[in-house]
Specification:
heterodimer; A: alpha/beta; Rossmann fold; Coagulation Factor XIII, Chain A, domain 1; 10 helices; 29% helix; B: 264 residues; mainly alpha; 75% helix; globular
């Protein structure tokens, strides 16, 4: 049973030039024909043919970048505006939390506003009267309910708006990023309310940038990107794909930035190389980006003295060809192409793997492991092989570095490379720990599901 | 369109609540409170009384004495009518946040404006009654039964125009400015501060084309002119026309409805 059916929905917003605002009816009447005034100068397709279903009782998350069409979709579901083409069918009473307390009038009391707002959302006076105490108690406004709403703090305002909208007792609750504005206690309260909705078999649509919330709370997720569906299904998978994509875009921007920085560094070193060569042989060079204070902070970047450089990083799959998607349990090789213009004798190569939340999954280097510091001169290739790749499904980012035994970096690449791990199993956590199950006594094979 | 109209009926409690809120919020924090509703028509009345009885006495036929009372019979309903149109044309833009963020029938907003101003009008009726008593005006009780009918006709006419104007203003902002000027012209094109009978015969057909002419004359006949109200067939004709105006106004609103969330 579907609570929501969306079929090939398109929504086109028409944007009119500045000119139109100054000469509307007049030019339409004088300038020959209304048609010209009505013709848009430019149109923006916010949704480009979106089709999906939401089952009754499901908690459904919608993620995507700003301007991806999430809020447009939500408004169409709420019935505010019509799709340009396609159909939307929603079963049952809908309540939309688009802006909390949107209908409040500042001059009149909270009590009167609750009634007006409730009527606006489709309740009868009697229904509101019956739920009134509950609403006020939820909003924690017992002492202020007869004061004008303009005297409320923004928190009180929001709580009252939320209380009214959720006490409409909708079959489908649409939520647009309202949790981001409250304090911790309020957010908890909202989440409890959503959980309560879920227990009662109501449908909740959550549009949010809080990916953890989607992961934790939703049964299914939808990823919108520039008005088209990029992914739908298991929230963890969708959220990870989305994260990976966000990381990829950030990567691209960073790589471009780093290339520019590297080019700048190359120019300055070419000029200053000779004079700055100190008697002890060490050469001080400007780092491409400054080293962060806390190494455990997940900020992307590249820094180091560049006496040895990582000039290329490739991530190879089981067949030794470059790929970003890897199966769990397969072989993954990280191949570093390194270069030292002058001979150095204390190069330590390091690798760090981080998951999408920024948690370090594993990190090691040639000092911790057996090989020890390496001698390096000219061009070289370093391969770091993981076999089997025992990571759970998700997206991961890489640190690669070459540094001195004391940790001072020659060249440190922080979270600049990413790869994805796919798995047929729905394991959770970070790493696949080697394990076996053993049974004894009154336990045996049972029914699935 | 008719399903929407039926659905609108379910929202009558909201219209009532919003109209009450409108009245309450308007006068909250002002010392004179709702008395301000009368200042505007009373000031108009004072000005015209001064002009027509002190500056230019004898410009009107003697059977229209007391002239102040005659003018007040027209000014009071005119204030309801003109304020309704002006405020409702702005109502969707003022309530734009609601239309974009809450799902409810947007026509509630202009309709609320008309009803809130009807409430003002009704509050003005006791003052009119005081005037009538003061001048010992020969009002027939039977005539007074027509008053609710006249008010109903004006209500339908106002609602129809308010619906159409509010939606049109949301899409063409200059309707609002056009309307402000039109209302001024409309006032003088209605026999409110002059009796219809005094208008030259050549002008009368034009006056008769103005629906509010008939409403104003109905109020004057019932409340001011001695003798029983005989022009009621006119009123019923106007009533039928007002029903048409109401549906036409609602039709225009309904057609523009989907464009509203993006226009306001």
């Amino acid at each position: 049973m579907n609570a929501i059916e969306v079929r090939d929905v398109r929504k086109v917003y028409q944007r009119f030039s500045q000119r139109r605002q100054f000469s509307t009816l007049k030019s339409a009447l004088l300038g020959g024909g209304m048609a010209r005034t009505f013709r848009p100068d430019e149109s923006l397709e916010a949704l480009k043919g979106v089709t999906f279903d939401v089952r009754r009782g499901q908690s459904f998350g919608v993620v995507g970048r700003n301007g991806s069409g999430k809020s447009t979709m939500l408004k169409l579901l709420a019935g505010i505006g019509k799709p340009t083409s396609g159909t939307i069918a929603v079963q049952g009473r809908v309540s939309a939390l688009i802006e909390l307390g949107a209908g409040f009038h500042p001059e009149i009391s909270g009590r009167e506003n609750v009634f007006i707002n409730g009527l606006m959302l489709g309740l009868t006076r009697k229904e509101i009267a019956r739920r009134f105490d509950e609403i006020v108690a939820f909003a924690e406004l017992e002492d202020f309910i007869d004061a004008p709403v303009k005297t409320y703090s923004s928190g009180m305002y929001m709580r009252l708006g939320f209380a009214v909208a959720t006490h409409v007792d909708p079959d489908v609750l649409l939520v647009d990023e309202v949790l981001a504005v409250g304090d911790e206690a309020f957010t908890h309260k909202c989440l409890d309310t959503f959980a309560e909705f879920r227990r009662r078999g109501r449908t909740v649509i959550l549009v949010t940038h809080s990916l953890d919330l989607v992961d934790r709370f939703c049964d299914e997720a939808l990823w919108l990107d520039h008005g088209v569906i990029r992914g739908q299904g298991d929230p963890r998978r969708v959220v990870d794909e989305y994260r990976l994509d966000v990381a990829r875009v950030a990567d691209r921007q960073l790589t471009e930035g780093n290339q520019q920085a590297a080019a700048r560094v190359a120019v300055t070193t070419a000029i200053t190389e000779e004079p700055t060569a100190a008697p002890d042989g060490s050469v001080e060079k400007a780092p491409a980006s400054s080293e962060p204070q806390d190494m455990f902070q997940a900020v992307e970047g590249r820094w180091g003295s560049r006496e040895a450089e990582v000039v290329g990083v490739e991530i190879l799959g089981s067949d030794d060809s470059p790929t970003t998607v890897h199966d769990t349990g397969g072989r993954l090789t990280i191949q570093l192409r390194v270069r030292a213009p002058q001979r150095i004798t204390d190069a330590v190569f390091g690798i760090g793997i981080f998951n999408a939340e920024g948690t370090c999954c594993y990190g090691t280097n040639t000092l911790i492991d057996a090989p020890g510091p390496q001698l390096l001169e000219g061009d070289a290739t370093v391969r770091f092989q993981i076999d089997p790749l025992d990571l759970v499904a998700g997206s991961y980012r890489l640190d690669v570095a070459v540094h001195r035994p004391d940790g001072a970096p020659y060249d440190y690449h922080r979270l600049l490379y990413s790869f994805r791990v796919t798995s047929p199993l729905a394991e959770v956590g970070i790493s696949r720990l080697r394990h076996t199950w053993h049974f004894a006594g009154g336990v045996g094979a049972g029914d699935r599901a | 369109m008719f399903t929407n109209l039926r659905q609108l009926f379910r929202y009558r409690a909201l219209i009532q609540g919003l109209a009450a809120r409108e009245l309450k919020a308007r006068y909250r924090g002002s010392a004179l409170g709702f008395l301000w509703s009368f200042v505007n028509p009373l000031l108009l009345l004072l000005i015209y009384t001064f002009v027509f009885t002190v500056v230019m006495p004898g410009t009107h036929p003697p059977e229209y004495e007391p002239y102040a009372l005659f003018m007040f019979c027209g000014i009071l309903p005119w204030t309801w009518f003109s304020t309704s149109l002006l405020e409702s044309s702005n109502s969707l833009i003022a309530g734009g946040n609601l239309i974009r963020k809450v799902l409810f029938p947007a026509e509630v907003l202009p309709i609320t404006t008309v009803f809130a101003n009807l409430a003002h009008f009704c509050l003005g009726l006791p003052i009119l009654a005081l005037f009538l008593l003061y001048y010992r005006s020969p009002v027939l009780t039977l005539d007074l039964l027509w008053l609710p009918v006249i008010i109903l006709v004006q209500l339908l006419l106002s609602l129809g125009l308010a619906l159409a104007l509010s939606a049109l203003t949301a899409i063409f902002r200059d309707v609002r400015d056009l309307l402000t000027n039109l209302v001024t012209v409309w006032f003088f094109a209605t026999p409110i501060i002059y009796p219809y009978s005094q208008a030259p015969a050549a002008v009368r057909p034009y006056l008769a084309a103005n629906p509010f002419t008939h409403l104003a004359r109905a109020y004057q006949d019932v409340l001011f002119t001695p003798g029983p109200y005989t022009a009621w067939p006119h009123l019923l004709e106007l009533g039928a026309a007002s029903v048409v105006v109401f549906f036409a106004g609602y039709f225009i609103f309904d057609r523009l409805r989907d464009a509203l969330p993006e226009s306001v």
